[in-house]
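Hey, why these numbers?
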Amino acid sequence: MRLVPALILLAGAGFLRGQTADDPEVSAARAEMAKVRAMVEAGAAPRAQLAQAEESLADAADAALLRKTAYGQDLTVEQAGDMIAAAERRFNRRQKSLDDAQRLVAAGVKTDLSLGSLRDDLDRAGKERDLANSRATLTRELSEMAQAEQLATARPALLDSETESDGVLAYATFARVEVAFEEHFGKKLPVSAVGETAVHRAMGVDHRGRVDVALNPDQPEGAWLCQYLAQNHIPFFAFRQAVPGKATGAHIHIGAMSTKLVSGG
């Protein structure tokens, strides 16, 4: 039954090669494992001792990862998942150690006093896991905020005004549409085009101040959006299929109908 420790060790080994080559705790655990392996191969130590050394190396790798992520300065969304997994593994190892010790106490092999340090270790691992989850949540939220800001800067025609004029859709109006859709369906409005795009320029139409949403007006979400726009007196056009010179496929166009681009303008 050494498959799980071996898998954990392999996962840790990849991390060791990538990020913890100089970590003193990992180096010490690796050296100890090599020593124990030599003793086991020589018949001077039980194989169970090697499994324990492998587990210690995996735990050292997880601890090194947490020092670079949960307690480090920079953390990416991609690293957040690895950080949470490492914290969870460390917590599970300490829970198992406590459970094993409690069985020995119940069997009369050990006294309850031997459980004190194990409970403390589990408590610290639990706090470490909470920290990892909190740091990961904050990192994801900051990433989403950054993406939202990038999306906003990609809407120059919508950000200029709070009121419609000359057929230009106001950003404040469109923002209300996005919020209403997300509150109703629990997901983002599938916007496919904001303002002028290469596709619209190729079609020869001025799409500034307009928004395209990738929803079929005959489907439930598209029908709801059309109804919402009509009720709130927001101009829109529903396309059920491609229309030469106007639409490449089914979608809902929010704002005034796009006008033809002026040559040389």
Remarks:
- The chain has two domains: 3-151, 157-260.
- The radius of gyration is 30 Å.
- Residues 3-151 form one domain.
- The chain has a mean pLDDT of 78.
